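Ligand-bound model needed. NAP.
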Amino acid sequence: MTDQTPPVQTFDPAVRTAVVTGASSGIGRATAELLRAHGWQVVAVARRADRLDELAAATGAIPFVADLTEQSEVDDLAALVGQLGRIDALFNIAGGAIGTETVEDAIIDDWVRTYEINTIATVRVTRALLPVLRTTAAEHGWASILTLTSTAGLISYEGGGAYTAAKHAEQAFVETLRLELSGEPIRVIAIAPGLVHTPEFSLNRLHGDQAKADAVYAGVDHPLTAEDVALVNVQTVELPPHINLDLVVVRPVAQSAQHKLHRGPLTPRIEQ
Ligand SMILES: NC(=O)c1ccc[n+]([C@@H]2O[C@H](COP(=O)([O-])OP(=O)(O)OC[C@H]3O[C@@H](n4cnc5c(N)ncnc54)[C@H](OP(=O)(O)O)[C@@H]3O)[C@@H](O)[C@H]2O)c1
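Prediction:
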């Protein structure tokens, strides 16, 4: 057990509880905020302690600092959750892309890191928390595992190499897990967004080049926001618990397909 164990008196075992990874920014943070607004208890996980402390102060989420690519830190998270004794929903949201190189110019370390955070970390966390998800399902009827994959997990694109490969693997993890949990009252859900304008995703992918990151979203009329995807995440898990949305593809109206992004205002074509 780490010194991150929250004061147990602030945790109420009668209240539904979620673990949200990637809660320090973007979609994870927005999901943690919305869950708190809906009355859930939230264990908020990421590496940046200052961001989690700010979230905790603003919402009452329980912060837990962990690098999910480190098994010992995932074990510490499992120990905390074991002590709490209840998780109704696990939101696997931590992830991200690194670089836009072609396969010919692939940077192997970037491929490995991308696979580690999007795929292996999701497996590590799910495997570690499954026992408590099961006991929660036994005591309260149901549990849910929601994983934020991507449309990059459904279709490949040039320069997407490491990210599309890792997200395809993460999507395969979701489908495998759903089959393996057959017969148990545990939902296994994939949310696959297209273009989402979050402050850090493209910035990280493009190694901190703000101008290039801004260009990704330039001229797009109403790109999805972190709050939009959080709404889908939370509403999906708040549906009656026997309804399993296996795969939810979420795109802005301006993106008709992965390769068809309209830039410029959305305008009705009205016959004169
Ligand atoms: N934005 C999009 O266009 C888009 C589209 C489809 C899918 N997605 C997926 O949605 C998820 C969230 O993306 P986002 O746009 O919200 O990006 P983001 O703001 O960059 O969020 C990524 C989160 O992952 C956490 N994280 C990264 N590496 C970690 C590690 N080793 N250990 C623990 N936490 C780690 C980060 O926290 P720390 O840095 O504090 O650790 C951060 O909270 C990702 O899985 C992404 O692939 C995004």
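The mean pLDDT is 96.
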